[in-house]
Write a structure and sequence with these properties.
The protein is built from seven helices and seven strands; from the N terminus they run βαααββββαββααα. By secondary structure, the protein is an alpha/beta fold. It folds into two domains: 181 residues, Lambda Exonuclease, Chain A; 40 residues. Strands 1, 2, 3, 4, 5, 6 and 7 form a seven-stranded mixed beta sheet that branches.
Length: 228
């Protein structure tokens, strides 16, 4: 049986990107309500604000562009908004798509997420875009196969296929996010090279935890030597 989360249980969709990157970062932001801006987050927010105009709808022939589209999934328990949703007009005989008010024919939603930097080695951007698409599927009753990530540094789109693997990954992350939120649990820090560019570095202090472990190990060894 699928979950159906109430309004009080909904979590921010944007958090799935934080969670995929670092569960501790997500918990510091979404459980402990801590946030610290750095150059990367400022530039990323600025790009989002340029893309997000809730009153702006642009028509480019067979493509209708809507910005800052509200999103909700009761199954995933997530809410938020999409930077841009393109609605691509389908061919006359096509039966897939959604009907739009004041528009003839059927239109296929195509979510586009804007990122300041460049493609990542991990899947944090992919799961965020996937979560947006799956919200749209639930809201509009349509199956969405593809979307795109637009990166500010490369000025290029990266096409994303919403396959079974990505769908499982998004669902698993959403379930774990809800479990952790309900427990109010913040994981202990684990330092990695990506921590150096994290906006929460000075709050998280990932290297301090490693130093504490080293000191504890040294003391245990010293006590064993004395007893030995």
């Amino acid at each position: 049986m699928l979950n159906s989360y109430s309004d009080d249980d909904l979590l921010m969709l944007s958090g799935i990107q934080h969670f995929a990157f670092c569960e501790r970062q997500w918990a510091l932001i979404h459980i402990e309500q801590q946030w610290q801006e750095n150059l990367l987050t400022f530039n990323g927010r600025d790009m989002h604000e340029q893309a997000d105009d809730p009153f702006f709808t642009e028509s480019r022939g067979a493509v209708l562009i809507s910005r800052a589209v509200p999103l909700l999934s009761r199954r995933l328990g997530l809410f938020g908004k999409a930077d841009v949703i393109e609605f691509h007009k389908t061919v006359p005989d096509e039966t897939k798509g959604v009907a739009l008010p004041g528009r003839a024919g059927l239109w296929m939603p195509y979510p586009v997420e804007y990122k300041y930097g460049q493609p990542k080695e991990d899947d944090r951007d992919l799961v965020q875009l996937g979560a947006q698409a799956f919200c749209l599927e639930e809201m509009l009753g349509v199956s969405i196969e593809t979307g795109a990530l637009f990166y500010g540094k490369t000025r290029r789109r990266q096409s994303v296929v919403f396959d079974d693997e990505l769908r499982r990954r998004v669902t698993e992350l959403a379930v774990r996010m809800h479990e952790m939120f309900q427990k109010g649990m913040t994981p202990l820090p684990q330092y990695k090279s990506a921590c150096d560019s994290c906006s929460l570095f000075e709050i998280c202090l990932p290297k301090l935890k490693n130093k504490d472990d080293a000191v504890a190990g040294y003391l245990r060894k010293a006590m064993m030597d004395e007893g030995g």
